[in-house]
Amino acid sequence: MATYCEVTGRTPSFGKSVSHSHRRTNRRFDPNLQSKRFFLASENRWIRLTVSTKGIKTVDVRGIEAVVARIRATDPVARRRLGAGRGNG
User: Are 11 and 4 in contact (CB under 8 A)?
Assistant: First the structure.
């Protein structure tokens, strides 16, 4: 699974784990990513996106059509995977 959210662009961040004795070791904070299917009514098909939980809430507020249009306009990798839209070439 991809390590970034296709809607919000969230990626892992890095920091330190601090033990009781205050020894510091490197660690990675991963976003809460989910693989979720959404139905595009305009194209009459399902698409699968890797989204963070905040990305799921963004889709609920803005709508899947608007979110997919923005992804296609900005992300060339996702655009290839999602297609340019049926009937649009």
Answer: yes
Q: Residue type for 31, please?
A: P
The predicted model scores a pTM of: 0.78
Task: Judge contact between 61 and 79, C-beta under 8 A.
Answer: no
Output the six-digit token pair for 76.
């060339």
Q: What pLDDT digit, counting tens, does each position of 8-55 carry?
A: 999 999 999 999 999 999 999 999 999 999 999 999 999 999 999 999
- Kind of pairing between the strands at 24-29 and 13-18: antiparallel
From residue 53, give the alpha-carbon distance in Å to each of 24, 31, 39, 45: 29, 9, 18, 23
How would you write 13-71 as a 3-class SS string? EEEEEECCCCCEEEEEECCCEEEEEEEECCCCEEEEEEEEHHHHHHHHHHCHHHHHHHH
